[in-house]
Amino acid sequence: MVQKAKILLVDDRPENLLALEAILSALDQTLVRASSGEEALKALLTDDFAVILLDVQMPGMDGFETAAHIKRRERTRDIPIIFLTAINHGPHHTFRGYAAGAVDYISKPFDPWVLRAKVSVFVELYMKNCQLREQAALLRLQLEGSGQAAGDPKEPAGLLAELSARLAAVEEQAEALSKQLDDESADAAAVATAAHLERKLTGLRRALDALEPGTGSGTAALPSQN
């Protein structure tokens, strides 16, 4: 079973949260509510999220302050934030949203289809990153195991072949996603995230290729997953 991504919805108005859930329910992911900035930061302490939809106008800690806290934490600083606001004070207000670390800034009322499409891109990128981390972790475990079972020369070769096939599947999906983003003229942030994913895949592929027999190297440093 494929694990669902979590999407954090932050708004102090229950009716707005209900509307967001109705719009995003078609994505079939896990939607998590937070009615304040403080509640959102608490949720981020324990769970990983693919994207955050953050209302700007909230009593107490507003969206800008909440985003600043999110970006200061190493665990959460790379989570995409989409600001939602019912007001529009012009370029300065929008710039403040991007300066706070948002990947997008959407004024209400917004097109439900557009919002759902934007969120789906970041969910897909998150899932690809999860697959990449799993493949890297599996590679490390298998290499440790093959080192302990060095007496069986067929074992490492078989493991490498399996890992190579799994990585190829992720590479194919990432390439298709990148082409889709290019075709749809997607947000620059989504395109940059996809490019970062492809660079990590390339690093993992190089590390795996270096372990193949006849390459002259019995070990290889695995790429960082940050």
TrEMBL record:
Coiled coil (UniProt feature): 160-187
Xref: SUPFAM superfamilies: CheY-like (SSF52172)
Domain of life from the UniProt record: Bacteria
Protein name: Response regulator
Keyword Ligase: no
Keywords: Coiled coil, Phosphoprotein
Start and end residues of each Response regulatory domain: 6-123
Organism: Streptomyces crystallinus
Location of 4-aspartylphosphate modifications: 55
Pfam families: Response_reg
PANTHER family the record matches: RESPONSE REGULATORY DOMAIN-CONTAINING PROTEIN (PTHR44591:SF3), STRESS RESPONSE REGULATOR PROTEIN 1 (PTHR44591)
